Amino acid sequence: MARILGIDLGTTNSLIAYMDGQTPRVIAGKQGRAMVPSVVAMTDNGLIVGDPAKEHLVRNPERTIYSVKRFMGKSLADVSEELKYFPYKLHEQGGVIRIQVGGKTYSPPQISAMILKELKLRAEAHLGEDVRSVVITVPAYFNDSQRQATKDAGMIAGLEVLRIINEPTAASLAYGLQRKTQGTIAVYDLGGGTFDISILKLKQGIFEVLATNGNTHLGGDDFDRTILDRLLHEIRAESGLDLGQYPDQMQALRLEAEQVKIRLSDELKTQATIELPDGKGVFRREITRDQLEALVGDLVERTLGPCRLALKDAALQPSQIDEVVLVGGSTRMPLVRQRVQELFGRVPHCELNPDEVVALGAAVQADILSGGTQDMLLLDVTPLSLGIETMGGVMSPLIRRNTTIPTSAKEMFTTYVDGQTSVDIHILQGERELAKDNRSLARFQLKLPPLPAGVPRVEVQFLTDANGILNVTAKDVRTNQTQSIEVKPSHGLTDEEVERMIGESFKFAAEDLKARQLIETRTEAEAIRKATEKALGLGGRLIGPEETEDIRASLASLTAATAGEDHRAIRACIADVEKATHHLAEVLMDTSLKEALQNKKLDELS
Amino acid sequence: MEQKPAAPPKRTELHMARSMCWHCQSEITGEYFCEQCVKVQPLSKELDYFTCLGVPRLLNIDLAALEAKFYALSRSFHPDFYHNKTDSEQAISLGNSALLNTAYRTLKDPVQRAEYLLKLEAGSAKDIRTSPPADLFEEILALQEDLEEYRQASPDQDPAALAPLKAKLASDRDQLEQRQRGMEAKLAELFNAWDRLQTRAGFAPVDDQLRKEREAILKDLRELLSNRTYLRNIITDLVAAMA
Fold first, then answer.
1. Interface of chain B against chain A, CB under 8 Å?
2. Which structural domain range is residue A574 located in?
3. Judgement on whether residues A194 and A95 belong to the same structural domain of the protein
4. What strands, in cross-sheet order, belong to the sheet with A64-66?
5. B83/A162 CB distance under 8 A
6. pLDDT tens track for B180-213
7. Rounded distance between C-alpha atoms, residue A442 and residue A437, angstroms
8. What is the pLDDT of residues A477-519, one digit of tens each?
9. Separation CA A446–CA B101 (nearest Å)
């Protein structure tokens, strides 16, 4: 059976991992970095994803999409409060957010698919084989629409998503594998855009989730915004400038705010620096860790409520938790660690890299599915109650939150009027009493035979599968006939839309490949140029002026070619530079060998 | 007029209600897998949760044994282990896991367990109570008046003036919680009574005497569960209003 890979599709960064024998490993790119920034830039030369796209955040803010995970499975109204922070244009169609870039419109799953494809290519280059089947992680507190949107993203990327698993539970798999832990653990997962708390019981290889809670709109992004808002305010007070009018400076300031936050995890004070537009000079401001903690204190407090609720649902006291595990980049903040430690009364674990542990766990789950790992089994739960709207707009729960999945509930439907031929059913998710306060998942129309009132009996089964995704089937009890029902998602793409997007994705693949080759060749050219400059500096005196001239000339044509769009031309210039520097390289090698030998002799003498 | 005794509750000793493998049509002798072709078999829809998890139909259950059986069956049925199998096997694994999870969730919790037992033994679970039980009637009526007064007054009234009312509500709450503890004790007694009877019945033929005792316990259980839910809702309301 083909290998299955594990993907952590994050708000800020994404990773792909595989099982190397008994050990899960993340796959690094050419630059040695395992994290692919979840950023997609739509440039004139095509699509760019990851680190090179990050550079476009400031250069090209309206056409560079980041934090798209916050929009997965959402409507525009859901995110109205944060719209001002995003430089790209959003609108809504069919209950789904659409992102407008240039003349084109993309759904969040399409953007996520671009990131997934980048990860797929990376893994294929590393493993030297096709990658088709994957496990993708989602925040535990993701609702049905958000999970479905993630699955759609996988399909659009040409992947078979064998399983959607929850991020904190994935992390527990990686930890459990490494530490052979038994007992009750709490996984506190604060990422770029989402927060989850999961409480699990680990016993003889079974990972049983007892309760989960969270907030799918609370993470590092929100910390950055708090700092950003403060800096914006101070810049306005000092220079009278409203940076909100300058999308590129806004992005630069957002990135600086993020860096300030990161630096203050290790240092007690740091300086925020930003170049102001219109020749207003440079804004500098010292920020201390205390000041940062005063700014983000409320946000950190907001993670503690869900922790207490999860404990309550698991019927446990904080003292009954044997181990606390930290996951997600935002748990590097000392304030977060301190609060978690206070709540649970014990020092949290953070031995595994909090950025990588979710992807590693996804690889473990992938290995379980492919039949490799057989002694571990994850029993996860559904995070939110699922129900239907009943008379008077009330939510009638069918499957309660924190129910172990897969699980199913059955409901019998009949008619109130003679000859009635259909019943409208509205599926909801959430914990509130009234239908309107819960998340609308989907609607469908149940067909009934035209009979006297109360005679038809149609049984509808609501089944939440191991992905936490709802499947609905109906059966006429009198005839024992199953009925196919067409469920229309309230905030999701229809099957037809997904099909169309898969098609488009293949069409764009060729263009994307060209763009990718250009970027990669440019990156390579830049590396060669730097190396050659360095070599000239080191060994210029060892070669003749004519040769130096040749090398300089080849570098100049390389620089010219790099500005162009033809990756073959750049590749040819790279070859020229390599030829021109061949002798210089040899000379340098000889010299360094001699030096090395001399040093060795010196070592031996002393 | 002498009443005819009600029909005895159907005591179905349900085993796997199937005899033939869905795949190779050979006779099934194993529990969950065909011994000929090793395919997983669907759990019967008639299967009750006690039989599913291999525990006797008692109200006091060894939770460690229940968990061990749940884990073992999860390893047999969970969809994670059926990814390389046929669509039919995947569907069976999904259905079996869903049933198993429901069975474990129901039996793990003592109240849900008792409600389920009532449904099995007497056809329906508890009644939903909309008016207070007789022995609590006066108390709850008075409480609801106080609560209403408190709710209407609290937004704009001077906190000091509300103090006596608040103290009264607190004492009402304490009393109701006392009642609640009494109910829990009574529930434990009924659990024991049922289990004693079941154990005795295991050796004796079902006679009228046994049947009457059984029905009496089930009746008490049903009433107690309804009252317990009613009281719990009242206390939750009270605590929420006072918070």
1. 71, 74-75, 78-81, 83-84, 94-95, 97-99, 101-102, 104-105
2. 497-605
3. yes
4. A46-49, A39-43, A64-66
5. yes
6. 899 999 999 999 999 998 888 776 677 888 888 8
7. 15
8. 888 888 877 778 888 888 888 888 888 877 766 666 777 778 7
9. 27
- If asked whether residues A224 and A85 sit together in one domain, one would say no
Highest mean pLDDT among A179-188, A213-222, B131-140: A213-222
Mark whether A79 and A195 lie in a shared domain: yes
Site of tokens 């509930």: A409
pLDDT of residue B125: 62
How far is it, in rounded angstroms, from Cα A449 to Cα A422?
Answer: 8
Q: Among A353, A379, A405, which residue terminates a domain?
A: A379
Query: Do A175 and A43 belong together in one domain?
Result: yes
Active-site positions of A read: 8, 69, 167, 189
* Residue at a domain's end among A322, A354, A379: A379
Residue A536's nearest CA partner among A524, A548, A528 is: A548
The letter for the amino acid at B217 is: I
Q: Which CATH class is domain B8-108?
A: mainly alpha
Domain CATH number, residue A240: 3.90.640.10
- What's the pLDDT tens digit per position in A365-414? 999 999 988 889 999 999 999 999 988 888 999 999 999 999 999 999 88
Cβ contact, residue pair A1, B71, below 8 Å: no
Residue A553 backbone dihedrals phi, psi, to 5 degrees: -65, -45
Determine whether the interchain pair A369/B101 forms a contact, defined as Cβ–Cβ distance below 8 Å. Answer: no
Nearest by CB to B101, from A163, A368, A404: name it. Answer: A404
- A536 and A474 together in one domain: no
Nearest CA in chain B to A205: B71
A189 and A244 assigned to the same domain: no
Using the structure block, give the residue that is written with the tokens 């804004």.
Answer: A283
Nearest Cα of chain A lies from the Cα of B81 at a distance, in angstroms, of 6
A268 and A132: one domain? no
- Each residue's pLDDT tens digit, B137-185: 777 887 888 888 777 776 666 777 777 888 888 888 888 889 889 999 9
pTM: 0.83
Q: Please give the structure tokens belonging to residue B145.
A: 């008046």
Q: Which of A204, A369, A407 sits opposite B101 (nearest CB)?
A: A407
Residue A223, token pair as written in the block: 């910390």
Same structural domain for residues A64 and A191? Answer: yes
Q: Which chain B residues are within 8 Å of A162, Cβ to Cβ? A: 83
Q: How many domains does chain A have?
A: 4
